[in-house]
Amino acid sequence: MNKNIEVINEHLWLVNFKHLDQGYISELKHMSQNHTDYRILTKEGILILDKAYEEGKDVATLFNFVMKLDDEQLQEGQSFKSYLVEKNPKMKDWDEKLMNTYVGYHCLENLLHVFNNISEMEKVRRKVEKEYKRKNRFKFLKRR
Questions:
Q1: CA 32 to chain centre
Q2: What is the pLDDT of residue 34?
Q3: What are phi and psi of 23, to 5 degrees?
Q4: Which helix (H) or strand (E) holds 5?
Q5: What is the pTM (predicted TM-score) of this model?
Q6: Measured between alpha carbons, how far is 46 from 20 in angstroms, rounded to an integer?
Q7: How many structural domains is the chain composed of?
Q8: Sorting pLDDT into bands at 50, 70 and 90, what band is 22?
Q9: Which residue has the higher pLDDT, 104 or 28?
Q10: In the Cβ-directed half-sphere of 122, how many Cα atoms lie within 13 Å?
Q11: Which of 8, 28, 35, 72 shows the smallest number of beta carbons within 10 Å?
């Protein structure tokens, strides 16, 4: 693997998009100049984040957390609750009202919004990956 590609997990990579645009990453040459913002979703369902993006490492940490959740936990608000519970296990049995009070008191509404957006992007990523595997299922069977 190219040293300019940092693999966080099999579905999440960090790449400096400037290196991508300059052709330093031959494995991803077909994506050069074909990106917007700070992320690329490949046809295989791999999410590539711009390593040079100011909050890139923080966003990668959040994506990595969300990618570990099951489909039920990806429902709106559930990914954020799971994240908060991981950080503070005492919150596990909190009801929605208490959780919302906590979020408001600690001004975490923006982080909640980010988690909801990341959860939606993860749902899309999973659909893309599933569709890719469905279309290419014979390739995956041959590898076994």
A1: 20
A2: 58
A3: 80, 15
A4: strand 5-9
A5: 0.83
A6: 15
A7: 1
A8: confident
A9: 104
A10: 26
A11: 72
- Residue 101 CA to residue 143 CA, distance in Å, equals 50
Beta bridge partners of 89: none
| Average pLDDT value for residue range 45-69 | 90
Q: Which residues contact 1 (CB under 8 A, 6 or more apart)?
A: 7, 27
Point out which residues pair with 3 in neighbouring strands.
none
Measured over the CA atoms of residue 86, residue 91, residue 96 and residue 99, the dihedral's sign is negative
**Alpha-carbon separation of residue 143 from 7, 97, 140 (angstroms):** 21, 49, 5
> Cβ distance 45 to 129 under 8 Å?
yes
Count of positions (residues) in the chain = 144
Q: Which domain holds residue 74?
A: 5-143
Q: pLDDT tens for residues 85-118?
A: 999 999 999 998 999 999 999 999 999 998 889 9
